[in-house]
Amino acid sequence: MKVEVLHPAGVLFSGESASVSLPAIDGLMGILDGHAPMVVALGNGKIEMEGAAPDIDIEGGFAQVENSHLIVLAEKASSVT
User: Fold this and answer.
1) Residue numbers of the domain that contains 72
2) Looking at beta carbons, which pairs linking 4-8 to residues 24 or more positions away fall under 8 Å?
3) Residue 65: C-alpha distances to residues 20, 80, 81 (Å)
4) Are the C-beta atoms of 42 and 63 separated by less than 8 Å?
5) Is pTM, for the whole model, over 0.85?
6) Among 5, 9, 14, 68, which residue has the fewest nearby CB atoms (within 10 Å)?
């Protein structure tokens, strides 16, 4: 699925991943390709993506899944090296 992680300074990540783990406000959430459409509020934690993508630390925001496309709008975000 296509994954985009955006924050106020711009695009932090744009690429493909078969699965993504997100820190929702009420717990960790897994997203697979073909997931049903949804919008979820995010808490603080780490976004982990399958493959070569870097892990990303976020603080708050929202995520939207629709048509095998995940968009994360983070209040604060930084790549984990």
Assistant:
1) 2-79
2) 4/69, 4/70, 4/71, 4/72, 5/47, 5/56, 5/58, 5/72, 5/74, 5/77, 6/71, 6/72, 6/73, 6/74, 7/58, 7/61, 7/73, 7/74, 7/75, 7/76, 7/77, 8/75
3) 11, 23, 26
4) yes
5) yes
6) 9
- The total number of structural domains in the chain stands at 1
Please state the length of the chain. Answer: 81
User: 38, 28, 36: which is closest to 64 by C-alpha?
Assistant: 38
Cβ distance 1 to 15 under 8 Å?
no
* Angular region, 18: left φ>0, alpha ψ -120 to 50, beta rest: alpha
Instruction: Check which CATH number belongs to the domain holding 37 and give it.
Output: 2.60.15.10
Tell me: the pLDDT tens digits for 20-61?
A: 999 999 999 999 999 999 999 999 999 999 987 789 999 999
